[in-house]
User: Fold SF4 helicase domain-containing protein from Candidatus Thermofonsia Clade 1 bacterium.
Amino acid sequence: MVTRRLPDEPQGTASEPTESVAPPTGQGVSRLGRPSVPAQPPAPQPNPARVSRRPSVNRPSQHMPRTLAQVLNDANDSVVRGDLSDFTPQPTGFDPLDGLIGGGLRKTELVLLGGAQGIGKTIAALQMARNIAMRPEQFAFYISYEHTETHLMNRLLCLESVNPPEIDTRNGLKLKDLFDIIISQRARELLGRDGSKAGSLQTILRENPRTSMALARLNKYADRLIMVKASPAVTTLNAIREMTARLAEATGGNLTVFVDYLQKVAIYPERAENEEDKVTIVVEGLKDIALSHNVPVVSIVASDREGLKAKRLHLFHLRGSSALDYECDIAIIMNNKYQVLAKDHISFNPYAAQQFRNWVVFTIEKNRAGRAMMDMEFQLHAPFFAFDPRGQEVRQQLIDDKIIES
Assistant:
């Protein structure tokens, strides 16, 4: 496979493995004998009618000293141009959560989303990315080390079938339902039983009454949700930095980055002595990407072994180093509500508590710009890969003697 270097990469210097000219989902082999970095996603081509064309103004260098007067003048120029993006948060679409973090995700901030395996971290992050991309002029970049782009698309079709925040599960599609529709229709076409010619996937989805609305909803933001299947071996921190830089420029800075998940980000040419050292490098790098490219970065973080054993997961249970706590601006920890209810409380009813197995408590354990240690809960509809984003504050007593009154 022919390899090439990035146009702006200095020649003759140590760098990360060369990039393969291949589809984003493929993994090639470079001339160095190592798997090549996945091809970067093509820069989106914004629709002039839907994306604001702000005047091209060179931002001052992020690492050059400026006087306070210069900072004030630059901010003033942005406001005069009508560019209020530095002052406007991007709502995640999870209403109670947005209310507690100042309206949503802000540029230059690093947000960590932690929780045990299977709690719904990817569901929450992908739904947030979808919510952001649904807004005209806004783009979301979802980097997944866990799933292919096609799998994420199928999840989104299931999510759109229940249409959050409406959450109408009567016509909801599970993955098996979606696959059965595609396979059965394709088989009928190939056998000629319905008299039609073999059609495309989009034709099948568009013409089936159970999938047509989900496809229509997905197409509303399909050109603004950018995805890449990352490799835990070769998709490095530097590759994420480069892709973010290109996409931030192509979208006029209207970009939110999602990383799923932090511990799988590869580092090169840096070398880590152990996992704690690696996590420190990665989390500091993600924070630098947020600052340097003026975008919000949301990263999923896995828990360590002690956290998996704990009755309630906390920020200090996240796998890696104390740098996770120091570098992030907001840390949200997810726990199953049934597991964290205070079962020794006098009002605890084990039968009534069963209803909470499908609820997830989101706890803001760190918040630089507002209140921390706040709990809110959202109902998880796992078969449809969706949360009900309306949510509410937790009113029952949780372990750790935490009570939030209504």
In short: Residues 19 and 37 are 5 Å apart (CA to CA).
